[in-house]
Amino acid sequence: MRSKHKEILEKVKNIIEFISSAKKFSRLIPEVRTNVAVASPDATSLDDIAGVDGRITIVQGMPKAAGPITFGATNHTGRLLLTARKFDPTISAVINIRYSPKLIENLSRTHLLLVEIDRTNQPMETQQTEDSSMSWIINNVYQKYQKIPDIIWDTGEMGKEPMVRLFAKNSDELIEKIQLILNLVD
């Protein structure tokens, strides 16, 4: 394994260890579960992005990785990250967490840039095309704001769970942002 890939796996491991030690994080795990994605510097495909095989779930009240950390293990967060990197290659990490109006209200009082996306505006052709929703979300936000914000959130739509997506330049910054969010959770 290339040393860069070992570094990326280690970065994901650090994020997972941080999350796994924070019982409060369990309150942030959505029904579809959480995954984290960290890209190698030259990422061009999902095989260049590491995440948790099986996602992060809740076991005995604590966040727990359901499987090993590996490349190509994350689909939704991986596609979000690949698309975001087309616009801002400095972004290398993303995690999805549970949406709540109270969380968004609390986050709006922080330094983080939040952008809401209305999933009901998604064109039918991208809704019906496999693996195109994540690209649509990023493309739509970038067209409007000319940047990738810290957070892209939505209130869901028919068959789509409301979601918060947290972006960062690196794994350390992602951990810092997760800590900030944990401080806002009751």
Tell me what the structure shows.
This protein has 186 residues and is an alpha+beta fold. The protein has a single domain, classed as Class II aldolase/adducin N-terminal domain (L-fuculose-1-phosphate Aldolase, 3-Layer(aba) Sandwich). It has a seven-stranded mixed beta sheet, sandwiched between helices. It is globular, with a radius of gyration of 15 Å. A hairpin with a 2-residue loop joins strand 3 and strand 4. Helix 1 packs parallel to helix 6 and helix 2 runs parallel beside helix 5. The chain contains six helices and nine strands. Helix content is 37%, strand content 20%.
Fill in the keyword field for this structure:
two-stranded antiparallel sheet, globular, 6 helices, L-fuculose-1-phosphate Aldolase, seven-stranded mixed β-sheet, 186 residues, alpha+beta
Cα Rg: 15 Å
CATH architecture: 3-Layer(aba) Sandwich
Secondary structure tally: strands: 9
What is the CATH class designation?
Alpha Beta
The CATH topology name reads L-fuculose-1-phosphate Aldolase
Q: What's the N-to-C terminus distance? A: 42 Å
Main sheet attributes: strand count, strand direction, barrel closure: 7 strands, mixed
Q: What strand line-up does the widest sheet have?
A: 5-2-1-6-9-8-7
Beta-strand proportion = 15-25%
Domains counted in the coordinates: how many?
1
Count the DSSP helices: 6
- Percent of residues in helices: 25-40%
Order of helices and strands: HEEEEEHEHEHHEEH
Average pLDDT: 93
Question: Regions with pLDDT < 50 over 5+ consecutive residues?
Answer: none
